[in-house]
């Protein structure tokens, strides 16, 4: 079967003469391997973009997903090819409508005409993984019904395996292949594409994203109707927006394109830093614009199969890295990479600093509006990999999403200065992260866990010491144990006195809160300026809190 599939791929390459799309600068081995295709006639009536699109459609879902990715990267592929690949977003040839109905009826346990007031047998949209039909519920609500393509999982598994072999070969022998990093793309989609097969997972993601932006003027997320949703079937509210790539329709309603582009950036940073839950598949086929309030345009997002999140540590280090990069503080960038654990501790910060400066200085000689924010991040991670930086899957997903958002923003408004929008947002987020309110919130969150564990500490110490004794402690060790226990009893007595003093201090602080708040804000500002270590501030607050809660 694998050999048969490989022969099918080669046949499609020959049929559409995809070998002609490979640059002439490729290695001699690649040129010799591709020379066998020159005996096949080229389809002269098709453009190169059409040939690639049709080939990907013939090869199936995983290849279509690869084409979708390329359609969002006009910086990596020619514009004419990127435009043609846009047709892969939601205009993939549909599968049999009777098969669609059979899956819906088997999942929902009834005839579609009994479940829905109306059901359109013709597909509304068809993508690589699923197909969508429109319908109306018995209560009159307009919905879309999404179904996973039948028997798709075995195809995906086989294609991913074969595509991985091809990606390794292309990356090794093609200059453009190395630039596109096809191996990383395939490995990413091996996970994310299989995740897309569970529509209940997508529904849960959509519900969370909807809660995050409930009543927001920035983003609208359709409602999921859980009573009609299963693993293979998803029913959700139908939206009537304008596709974000329909520039003529957007201009016809006098959409503020500058505001639309800026709001896309704001949505991205809100998801990543405020909510820590971001839509990670925001290609143009999944984004619409509301027809209401064109002067303050609102986005509409669909297809939440792929989402991402970061740890609080990654959020913090990513924000500080981006700020340090645009300040050209390469030493801080290097130190942050070591502190975060993104590169091993044995890496010499000075050497990493020099490597980052060498790569980034030419970029920053351009005006800020001409600098790709996403490409700076990409360059940063590529440079760090030379110093044994491990692949951070959550950061790769974030990077891909940022590439999509930035590419879309520049299509909508070519003069978009992403840094002008992002810079104040990151500054504000870091400042709020160390505000008294945020620190107090974190302390309250962890307080129950600390209070639960603290009484067990003496017992754990005693047990460990007892184990040492049972293992054959010397007389000197026993004396040290007794001294330790006596010291512990003395410390408990001191803590009781400190508790009384602590409460008096806290009450006094509450009375003089404005002064305390001002001092705390000043301290937070000094943290942001690197005059005080964040760890020092956190230990200071934890110390006060531990005193009060003893």
Care to describe what's here?
The chain has 550 residues and is α+β, with helices and mostly antiparallel strands. It folds into 3 domains: 2-88 and 153-194, no CATH class; 97-151 and 195-264 and 275-306, Transferase(Phosphotransferase) domain 1 (Transferase(Phosphotransferase), domain 1, Orthogonal Bundle); 436-548, no CATH class. The chain has 24 helices and 11 strands. The chain has helices at residues 2-16, 28-34, 48-59, 61-71, 79-85, 97-108, 112-115, 153-173, 175-180, 182-195, 199-212, 247-252, 257-275, 312-326, 330-340, 349-360, 373-385, 393-412, 418-433, 436-453, 456-470, 475-511, 513-528, 534-548, and strands at residues 116-119, 125-126, 130-137, 142-148, 219-220, 233-237, 242-243, 278-279, 287-289, 299-301, 307-308. The strands form 3 sheets. Strands 1, 2, 3, 4 and 6 form a 5-stranded antiparallel sheet that branches. It has a 4-stranded mixed sheet with strand order 5-10-9-7. A hairpin with a 3-residue loop joins strand 2 (125-126) and strand 3. Residues 505-521 and 534-550 have low confidence and may be disordered.
């Amino acid at each position: 079967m694998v050999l048969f599939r490989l022969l099918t791929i080669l046949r499609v390459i020959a049929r559409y003469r995809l070998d002609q799309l490979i640059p002439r600068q490729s290695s001699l081995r690649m040129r010799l391997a591709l020379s066998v295709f020159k005996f096949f006639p080229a389809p002269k009536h098709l453009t190169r973009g059409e040939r690639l699109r049709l080939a990907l459609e013939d090869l199936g879902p995983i290849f279509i997903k690869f084409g979708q990715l390329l359609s969002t990267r006009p910086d990596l592929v020619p514009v004419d090819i990127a435009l043609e690949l846009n047709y892969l977003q939601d205009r993939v040839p549909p599968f049999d409508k009777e098969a669609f109905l059979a899956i819906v009826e088997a999942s929902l346990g009834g005839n579609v005409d009994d479940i829905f007031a109306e059901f359109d047998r013709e597909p509304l949209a068809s993508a690589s993984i699923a197909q969508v039909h429109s319908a109306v519920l018995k209560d009159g609500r307009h919905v879309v019904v999404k179904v996973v393509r039948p028997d798709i999982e075995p195809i995906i598994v086989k294609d991913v395996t074969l595509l991985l072999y091809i990606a390794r070969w292309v990356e090794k022998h093609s200059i453009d292949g190395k630039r596109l990093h096809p191996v990383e793309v395939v490995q990413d989609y091996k996970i994310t594409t299989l995740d897309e097969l569970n529509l209940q997972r997508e529904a849960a993601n959509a519900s969370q994203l909807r809660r995050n932006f409930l009543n927001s003027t920035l983003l609208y997320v359709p409602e999921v109707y859980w009573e009609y949703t299963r693993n293979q079937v998803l029913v959700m509210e139908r939206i009537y927006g304008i596709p974000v790539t329909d520039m003529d329709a957007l201009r016809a309603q006098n959409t503020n394109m500058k505001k639309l582009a800026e709001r896309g950036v704001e949505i991205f940073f809100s998801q990543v830093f405020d909510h820590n839950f971001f839509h990670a598949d925001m290609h143009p086929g999944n984004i619409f614009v509301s027809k209401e309030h064109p002067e303050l345009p609102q986005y509409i997002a669909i297809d939440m199969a792929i989402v991402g999140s970061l740890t609080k540590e990654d959020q913090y280090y990513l924000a500080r890295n981006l700020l340090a990069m645009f300040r050209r503080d390469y030493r801080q960038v290097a130190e942050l990479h070591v502190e975060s654990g993104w590169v091993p501790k044995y890496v010499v910060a000075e050497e990493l600093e020099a490597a980052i400066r060498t790569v980034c200085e030419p970029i920053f000689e351009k005006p800020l509006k001409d600098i790709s924010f996403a490409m700076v991040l990409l360059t940063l991670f590529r440079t760090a990999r030379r110093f044994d930086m491990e692949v951070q899957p959550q950061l790769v997903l974030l990077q891909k999403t940022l590439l999509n958002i930035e590419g879309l923003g520049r299509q909508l408004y070519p003069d978009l200065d992403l840094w002008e929008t992002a810079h104040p947002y990151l500054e504000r987020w870091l400042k709020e992260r160390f505000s008294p309110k945020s620190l107090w919130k974190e302390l309250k969150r962890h307080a129950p866990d600390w209070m639960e564990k603290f009484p067990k500490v003496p017992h754990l110490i005693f047990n460990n010491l007892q184990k040492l004794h049972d293992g054959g402690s010397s007389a000197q060790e026993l004396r040290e144990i007794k001294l330790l226990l006596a010291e512990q009893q003395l410390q408990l007595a001191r803590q009781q006195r400190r508790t009384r003093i602590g409460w008096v201090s806290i009450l006094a602080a509450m009375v003089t809160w404005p002064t305390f708040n001002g001092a705390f804000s000043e301290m937070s500002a000094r943290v942001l300026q690197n005059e005080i270590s964040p760890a020092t501030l956190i230990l200071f607050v934890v110390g006060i809190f531990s005193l009060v809660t003893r």
